[in-house]
Amino acid sequence: MLERPPPDMLDFSSLLLAAALSGVCLSVTMFAIWATAPRARFVLTVACGILVLVAHVILFWHYTREPDPLLCQVALALLSLGFLIICISAMQYLGMPDHRRAIAPTFAAMAIGAAVTFMGLDGIGFVITYATVTALLSTIGAMFWINGSHDRRILLVVSFLSGTCALSFALCGVVLMTKGQWTLGVAPDNWAERLNSVVAVACMTGLGALTLSLHHLQAQIELKAETMTDPLTGLMNRRGLMSLYGECTFGPFMAIVMFDLDHFKRTNDIYGHPVGDQVLCRFAAVIRKYARTGVDAFRLGGEEFAIVMSRMTEERAYDLASKIGVAFGTEIVPTPLGPLRSTVSGGIGFGEADGSTLDEVLARADSMLYAAKRAGRNCVISRKGMDKADPVKPALRSA
C-alpha cells in the first residue's frame, strides 16, 4: 500500500471548500434563472450537473482525510456523472437530442471503474474516471466548436476552457499510469493532481459564467425570432423579410413570388374566421412542402404570402410557384357547411442584371399578381406574361 505524504491540508481543503461554495452559488443562480425562463432547460441541466460535482468535491474532501474504498467509488462515480450531465446540457443547448451517445459509454466506464476499485485497484479506477472526464470535456469543446451557430468568440472560449480542463484530467491519469500506481489506498497526490485542482476550479467557474452568457444570447435570439415569425402559420413575417433581404441586391437569378388567396374575404364571411385561419395554415403547409435550399417563405399579412428564391431561372421559378398553386387547390378544409377548397393567385418578379432592391422586386411581383387577378385568378404570371397554370379540379365548395 502506498503511503501518501502529509498534504498541506489548509491549502488543499480551502481550495476544495471554496470550489464547493462557488459551485453552490453558481447552481443557485442558474436555478433562479431557469425559474424565470423554464424553456431554457439546458440551464437547469447545468445547475444539476454542478450540484453533482459539488457533492463529489465534498466527498473527495472527506476521502482525503479518511480514506475509504466505498467513499472512493462514490466520489469517482459522482465526478463522471457530473460531467456527463454537463455534457448533456451542451447537447440540449445545441439541439442534439440523441443523449444516448454520451450516456451509454459513460455509464459503462463508471461500472468498470467501480468494479476495479472494489477489487482494490483504486489507481486504475482513478485512471478510468480521468479518461472518462477527459472524453466528456473534449466532446463538449468539440460540439460547441463544430455545431455552434452563435458568436464564435464565445464558442472559442467555451472550447478552450473545456479543452484545458480535459488536458488537466488527462495529465492526472498519465502520471498515475507512468508511475504504475494501480493500488493507492489514499487520494492520489502529485503535481498533476495539484495542477488539476486549480485548473478545474478556474475552468468550471468560467464555463458556469459562460453558461449565463449563452443563456442571455439564446434569449435574445429567441426574442428576435418571435418578432420575425407569424404566430398563426409559423412562417416569417414582413419584418423577417426586411431583416433577411432588406439590404440585399437582387440579380437576374433571384425572384420573389407574391401569392394572394382568392376571395379570402368571402371565405371569412361565409365560413367564419376560424375556418379562414385553417385555410391560411394549409397554404403555409403547402409552401413548406415545396420549400428547398434557397427558398424562404413569408406571410406578409392577411392573405398575402411571398417566397424569395435564389439561383432560379424564370422557368424554374414559374414551375415551383405553379406547383404550389395547384397543390393548394387540392387541399380540402372540412367545415360545418361542407368541404372547402380554395385557390391562390401568384405573381413573379425578378431582379435585374445591374441589381435591384427588395422594394423594386416586390413591386414587380405585385404587378404580376394583379395581372393574375385580372386574368381570372387561380394562376401564376411572370414578367414575360407566361400562360397561367392549369386550373385545379372544380372545387367542392369554392371560396
Q: Can you tag this structure with a few keywords?
A:
399 residues; 12 helices; alpha+beta; disordered C terminus; 8% strand; five-stranded mixed sheet
Would you give an account of this structure?
The protein has 399 residues and is an alpha+beta fold. Helices cover 64% and strands 8% of the residues. It has helices spanning 9-36, 41-65, 69-93, 100-118, 122-147, 152-179, 191-227, 238-245, 264-271, 273-290, 314-329, 358-374, and strands at residues 254-261, 295-301, 304-310, 344-350, 380-381. Strands 2-3-1-4-5 form a five-stranded mixed beta sheet, sandwiched between helices. Helix 12 links the parallel strand 4 and strand 5. The longest helix is centred in the middle third of the chain and has 37 residues, at 191-227. The model is unreliable at 1-10 and 386-399 (pLDDT under 50).
Oligomer: single chain
What's the total count of β strands? 5
Element pattern in H and E: HHHHHHHHEHHEEHEHE
Radius of gyration: 31 Å
SS element count, helices:
12
How is the main sheet built? Answer: 5 strands, mixed
Average pLDDT metric:
85
Tell me the helix content: 55-70%
Structural class of the helix and strand makeup? alpha+beta
Question: Which spans of ≥5 residues are poorly predicted at pLDDT below 50?
Answer: 1-10, 386-399
Overall shape: it is elongated
- The proportion of residues in beta strands is 5-15%
Q: Strand arrangement, largest sheet?
A: 2-3-1-4-5
Distance between the termini: 88 Å
Pfam family, one: GGDEF
Enzyme class: transferase
InterPro entries: Diguanylate_Cyclase (IPR050469), GGDEF_dom (IPR000160), Nucleotide_cyclase (IPR029787), Rev_trsase/Diguanyl_cyclase (IPR043128)
Keywords: Membrane, Transmembrane, Transmembrane helix
